[in-house]
């Protein structure tokens, strides 16, 4: 798709604005910036995030947050082994922990990724 081109929702199934959120927000295709006639605005946290820096899928953990000592080397060594990744997590009701092989974050409220410049995550497309 070219820059400035109109979004054709019949062929494009990417989030209009990829977001992360806590467990109160459902996961799926975020369409809230698209104008779709006769359909309500849909706010969701994207569940098909992909990192363009490491070219890996983003994994999500409900009701978890990251320990403060999680760094690039820990993620690089332990991704995608969820059991090993969970060794650096703690329980946190309402939160979601996210990571790829090179970055991690957590969220409790809806946050669009364009507001987090350190993350190079994009929507990896949603199946209809």
Automatic annotation (TrEMBL):
Organism classification: Eukaryota, Metazoa, Spiralia, Lophotrochozoa, Platyhelminthes
Compartments where located: Cytoplasm; Photoreceptor inner segment
Function: May be involved in photoreceptor outer segment disk morphogenesis.
GO cellular component terms attached to this protein's record: cytosol; photoreceptor inner segment
InterPro entries (UniProt xref): CFAP418
Keyword Cytoplasm: yes
Entry keywords, A to Z: Cytoplasm
One Pfam family in the UniProt entry: RMP
Family annotation (PANTHER family): CILIA- AND FLAGELLA-ASSOCIATED PROTEIN 418 (PTHR33958:SF1), PROTEIN C8ORF37 (PTHR33958)
Main localization of the protein described in the UniProt heading: cytoplasm
Name the UniProt record assigns to this protein: Cilia- and flagella-associated protein 418
Residue stretches spanning the membrane: none
